[in-house]
């Protein structure tokens, strides 16, 4: 191919391409290891399946864990009432700071907040840090917007019952679970392609990830607004929801930071080399968690 030809060799494949084609072809190269490399795919699949099943098995314990000295998010209204405040202006700043920390712990430490998909997105598609932060902010704005649409326009103006509101919230969460399954399917498809040595660009999991983040309405956050409705203090509910949602945003941004550090540790070539096994691991783990949520929803509908 001439004097400018470049040669790259892995354990299993040999590529020859010109220097001009190197940049355009590099993102599409599949770093499938040799025969012994299939062992890594097996380990990744087994680890992903075990991790997913373990999270499903211990999900109630993981979801119920909470620091003993920190107020739970859904107890925001009773917590503020303990200060003996009579108006919104009397709510102390310490209460807002505490609820921000509570929102952070809820989204960062509890399962089901799409932390693994965020890490998978960083490694699988390698978006820029600015792009990741931008889309995480958009998903948070959409999530907050959905809460406003449901509980401001429909609840406090339409006076819907709590049961009806919870049904609407459940529909939004169903969309989140379906988007999670789509995300897992894309990861598993790409992992299988890499295992077979098929040269194909990685599927972009950004859209299903944003759907999963935006449509997920945790019941602990929802209960702040429902409690405000019961106390007939809707404005208080929104003022207490804001710091909790800020904590959720900080947790997502912290997850982005961890994902970027992990990607930097792997390096560009490492992300490409391990894209298949990591996609298989992440896909199976997310599939177990999302599948469990869908099955639970179906069983609840049957009951």
TrEMBL record:
It comes from the Bacteria. Keywords: Membrane, Transmembrane, Transmembrane helix. The keyword Transmembrane applies. The keyword Membrane applies. The chain crosses the membrane at residues 39-62, 83-108, 135-156, 168-187, 207-226, 238-266, 278-295. This is Uncharacterized protein. It comes from Klebsiella pneumoniae.
